[in-house]
C-alpha cells in the first residue's frame, strides 16, 4: 500500500469521525430540546406551546403561568443542569480511570457529597449555596480517600472500585444515621438523599448548579485533549506530552466539583453518572470525544426519568428510582461483559 | 499462592491455636455473649431499674419499664440467632469459595433475599410468614448462583476480587430495584428502609418461631460440613484425591449458608459485613480448622450483632440505629483493609 494512500485513509477516517461526532451531538441537542419543550407543555394537563412560550417570555398567562412557570420550568431546568453535571463528571472519571465502573456514583463520591449535604442541612442547619460548598469539599475528601486507600504499588482498577464500594457503604450508613436524627423525617427528603429527586424544585436552586457547570465544566473541557490522551494509558499519554499527574488532579477536582454541586441540590440521582458515558460511547464509536455527548445524554436521562416517574407510571416516583431501575440491569450486564472479555472495559 | 485468599493467608497468618487455648477462647466467647445478652436486656432508650428488669424476666409487665424489658428479650434472642447465622454463613462462604472477601452481604445474597421478599409481597400478595421465609431462601439461592456465575466468567475463574466485584455490583443493583418495587407500596411492613438496611427491632417470639426451623436446618447442615470444608481448603485436586466429591461438598455447604442467610434476611432485612469480619477474627483465635472455626464464627457473629444492636440503641438516643447501619460502619473499613492487602493482579 502506498504511503499517500494510507495517509488519505487516515484523513478520511478522521473526517468521518468528526462528522459522526457532530451529527450525534446535534441530534442529542435536538432530542434534549424536544424533551425539554415537551415536559414544559405536557404534564397533568396540556399547555399549548404558544402559552408556554409566552410564559417563558415573562407574560402573565392565566392558568399557565403557575403550572409552567412555577412548577414545570424549575423542575425541567434543574433536571437538565443536574443531568449535564452528572453526565460530564461521570464520564471524566470513567475516561481517566479507563473503567466504566469507576463512575462517581459507584465509588462513593456521590454518597460522600450526599452525606455532607445531609450533615450540613440536618446538623449544621445550613441552606443554600453553602451546602453546595460543603458537598464539594466533602466530595474531594472522599475522592482523595478512595484514591489514597487503593494506592498500593500503583492504583489497580478493581481495587479502587472495591475500596470505593466499601467507602460508599459506610457513607450510606452515615446518611441513614443522619436522616434518623433529622427532626422531621419525611420520606420525600429521605429519598432525595438516598436516590436523588427533583421534587419541589425552585428556580433559585439552579444557581449553584449553573455556577458549578460554568466553573468546573469549563475547567474539565479545557483539559479535553489531555483527557483523551489518558484513554491511551498513562505512559502513552506522557509520551504524547501530557503532564499526567497534573491533568489527573485537575480532572478529579473538576469532575468532583460537578458531581458534588449537583448532588447538593438534587441528591445523588442514581446511576446517571454511570450510564451516560457508556451510552455516549455506543453512539459516538470508540474513538470520538465523549464528554459533551455524555453530558447531553445525562440531561436527557434525568429529564425523561423525572417525566416518566411523574406521569407515565402508576404512582409517583422520584427520578432517582427510575434511573436506578434502568441502571441496575446495565450494571450487571457490564460486569458480565467485562468478566467475559477478561479485562479491559 | 497469593491469589488464593484463605489458603494464602492460611497457616502463616493464622497460627493454629493449641487445643487448650481454643477451649479457653471458646469459654471466653460464651461468657462475652452472656454479658452482652444481659446488657442488651438492661440497656435501651429507657433506663430501667434492676428490680424491674428481674421482674420482667420473670414475665411481669406491670410498669412501663417492665414492658420495655419484655420487648428487649425477643429482640436480644433475635440478635443472637441472626448474628450466629450470619457469622456462620460468612465462614462457610469463605470456605466454599476460598475467598477472603466472601460474605452474604457482599456477595449479594442478602440483598437478593430482600428483593425476592419485596417482589413476593408487592406483586404476588405473599402474606404468611412461612411463605416469606421460603421466598427469601429461594431469592438468596438464586442470587448466590447468579453472582457466582458472573464472578467466574472469563479468564481465571472466580478470583476473589472478581467475585467481590460481581457481588457488590449485584447488591447495588438489587438495592436500587428494592426501592423501585417498594416505593409505591406504602403498606409493605416496615417501609423501604427495613428492606435496604436490616435491623432486629420489632422482634417477637412468634416471628422467631417461624424462622427457627429454617435456621435449625441451616445450622445443622453448616456445622456438619466442617470436615468437607477442611478438605476443600486443600484445593480441589487434592480434595478430590482424598476421595471428596468436590462439587457435592460445595453445594451442600453452600445450601446451609444460603438457608441461614435467606432466613435471617426474611425477618431482619439485609445485614451486611457480619459474615465478613467475624470469620477472619475467629481464625486468629481458633485457627483454620473448620471444626473449630465454624462454632467460633457462630458465637462471634452472635456477639458482634448483639453488641452492634446495644450500641445502636445507646449512640442514637432517644432514637435507635438499625444494626445494619452499625455493622456497615464497623465492617466496611475491614472490607477495605482486606481489599488493600489482596496482592492480586488487576482483573
From TrEMBL, chain A:
UniProt keyword Kinase present: no
Location in the cell: Cell membrane
Transmembrane feature ranges: 76-97, 106-124, 130-148, 160-180, 200-221, 249-276, 288-305, 317-336
Xref: SUPFAM superfamilies: ABC transporter involved in vitamin B12 uptake, BtuC (SSF81345)
GO terms, biological process: siderophore-iron import into cell
Membrane topology: Multi-pass membrane protein
InterPro entries: ABC_BtuC-like, ABC_transptr_permease_BtuC
Keywords of this entry: Cell membrane, Membrane, Transmembrane, Transmembrane helix, Transport
Pfam (any one): FecCD
One GO cellular component, as annotated: plasma membrane
Record-stated family: Belongs to the binding-protein-dependent transport system permease family. FecCD subfamily.
Protein name (database record): ABC transporter permease
TrEMBL record, chain B:
Signal peptide annotation: none
Chain ranges passing through the membrane: 24-43, 76-93, 105-126, 132-151, 163-183, 247-272, 292-311, 323-340
rRNA-binding as UniProt keyword: no
A GO MF term: transmembrane transporter activity
InterPro entries per UniProt: ABC_BtuC-like (IPR037294), ABC_transptr_permease_BtuC (IPR000522)
The keyword Transmembrane appears for this protein: yes
Entry-linked Pfam families: FecCD
Name assigned to this protein: Iron ABC transporter permease
Organism encoding this protein: Pseudorhizobium pelagicum
Amino acid at each position: 500500500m502506498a504511503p499517500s494512500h494510507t495517509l488519505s485513509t487516515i484523513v478520511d477516517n478522521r473526517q468521518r469521525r468528526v462528522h459522526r461526532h457532530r451529527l450525534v451531538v446535534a441530534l442529542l441537542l435536538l432530542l434534549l430540546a424536544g424533551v425539554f419543550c415537551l415536559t414544559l407543555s405536557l404534564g397533568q394537563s396540556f399547555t399549548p406551546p404558544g402559552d408556554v412560550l409566552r410564559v417563558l417570555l415573562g407574560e402573565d398567562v392565566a392558568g399557565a403561568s403557575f403550572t409552567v412557570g412555577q412548577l414545570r420550568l424549575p423542575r425541567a431546568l434543574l433536571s437538565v443542569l443536574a443531568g449535564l453535571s452528572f453526565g460530564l463528571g461521570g464520564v471524566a472519571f470513567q475516561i481517566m480511570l479507563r473503567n466504566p465502573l469507576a463512575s462517581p456514583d459507584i465509588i462513593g463520591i456521590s454518597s460522600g457529597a450526599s452525606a455532607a449535604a445531609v450533615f450540613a442541612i440536618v446538623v449544621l442547619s445550613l441552606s443554600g449555596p453553602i451546602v453546595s460548598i460543603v458537598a464539594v469539599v466533602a466530595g474531594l475528601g472522599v475522592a482523595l480517600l478512595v484514591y489514597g486507600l487503593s494506592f498500593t504499588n500503583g492504583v489497580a482498577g478493581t481495587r479502587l472500585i472495591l475500596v470505593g464500594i466499601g467507602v460508599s457503604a459506610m457513607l450510606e450508613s452515615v446518611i441513614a444515621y443522619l436522616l434518623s436524627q433529622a427532626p422531621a423525617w419525611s420520606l420525600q427528603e429521605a429519598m432525595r438523599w438516598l436516590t436523588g429527586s427533583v421534587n419541589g424544585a425552585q428556580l433559585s436552586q439552579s444557581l449553584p448548579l449553573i455556577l458549578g457547570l460554568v466553573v468546573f465544566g469549563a475547567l474539565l473541557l479545557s483539559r479535553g485533549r489531555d483527557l483523551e490522551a489518558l484513554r491511551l494509558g498513562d505512559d502513552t499519554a506522557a509520551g504524547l506530552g501530557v503532564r499526567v499527574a497534573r491533568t489527573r488532579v485537575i480532572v478529579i477536582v473538576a469532575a468532583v466539583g460537578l458531581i458534588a454541586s449537583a448532588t447538593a441540590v438534587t441528591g445523588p440521582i442514581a446511576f446517571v453518572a454511570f450510564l451516560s458515558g457508556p451510552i455516549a460511547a455506543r453512539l459516538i464509536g470508540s474513538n470520538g470525544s465523549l464528554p459533551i455527548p455524555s453530558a447531553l445524554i445525562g440531561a436527557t436521562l434525568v429529564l425523561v426519568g423525572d417525566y416518566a416517574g411523574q406521569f407515565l407510571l402508576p404512582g409517583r416516583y422520584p427520578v432517582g428510582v427510575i434511573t436506578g431501575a434502568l441502571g441496575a440491569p446495565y450494571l450487571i450486564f457490564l460486569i458480565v461483559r467485562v468478566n467475559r472479555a477478561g479485562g479491559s472495559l | 499462592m497469593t491469589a488464593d485468599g484463605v489458603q494464602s493467608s492460611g497457616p502463616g497468618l493464622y497460627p493454629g491455636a493449641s487445643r487448650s487455648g481454643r477451649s479457653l477462647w471458646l469459654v471466653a466467647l460464651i461468657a462475652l455473649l452472656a454479658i452482652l445478652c444481659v446488657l442488651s436486656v438492661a440497656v435501651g432508650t429507657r433506663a430501667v431499674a434492676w428490680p424491674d428488669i428481674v421482674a420482667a424476666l420473670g414475665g411481669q409487665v406491670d410498669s412501663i419499664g417492665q414492658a420495655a424489658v419484655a420487648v428487649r428479650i425477643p429482640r436480644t434472642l433475635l440478635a443472637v440467632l441472626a448474628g450466629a447465622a450470619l457469622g456462620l454463613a460468612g465462614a462457610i462462604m469463605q470456605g466454599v469459595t476460598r475467598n477472603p472477601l466472601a460474605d452474604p452481604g457482599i456477595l449479594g445474597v442478602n440483598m437478593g433475599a430482600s428483593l425476592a421478599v419485596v417482589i413476593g409481597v408487592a406483586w404476588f400478595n405473599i402474606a404468611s410468614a412461612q411463605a416469606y421465609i421460603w421466598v427469601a431462601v429461594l431469592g438468596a439461592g438464586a442470587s448466590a448462583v447468579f453472582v457466582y456465575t458472573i464472578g467466574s466468567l472469563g479468564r481465571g475463574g472466580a478470583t476473589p476480587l472478581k467475585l467481590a466485584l460481581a457481588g457488590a455490583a449485584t447488591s447495588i443493583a438489587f438495592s436500587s430495584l428494592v426501592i423501585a418495587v417498594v416505593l409505591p407500596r406504602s403498606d409493605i411492613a416496615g417501609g423501604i428502609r427495613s428492606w435496604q438496611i436490616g435491623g432486629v427491632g420489632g422482634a417477637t417470639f412468634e416471628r422467631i418461631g417461624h424462622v427457627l426451623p429454617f435456621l435449625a436446618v441451616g445450622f445443622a447442615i453448616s456445622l456438619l460440613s466442617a470436615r468437607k470444608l477442611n478438605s476443600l481448603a486443600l484445593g480441589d485436586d487434592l480434595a478430590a484425591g482424598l476421595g471428596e466429591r468436590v462439587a457435592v461438598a460445595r453445594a451442600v455447604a453452600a445450601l446451609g449458608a444460603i438457608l441461614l442467610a435467606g432466613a435471617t434476611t426474611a425477618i431482619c432485612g439485609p445485614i451486611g459485613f457480619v459474615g465478613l469480619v467475624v470469620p477472619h477474627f475467629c481464625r486468629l483465635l481458633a485457627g483454620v480448622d473448620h471444626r473449630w472455626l465454624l462454632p467460633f464464627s457462630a458465637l462471634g457473629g452472635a456477639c458482634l450483632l448483639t453488641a452492634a444492636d446495644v450500641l445502636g440503641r445507646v449512640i442514637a438516643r432517644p432514637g435507635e440505629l438499625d444494626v445494619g447501619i452499625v455493622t456497615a460502619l464497623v465492617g466496611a473499613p475491614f472490607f477495605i483493609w482486606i481489599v488493600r492487602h489482596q496482592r492480586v493482579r488487576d482483573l
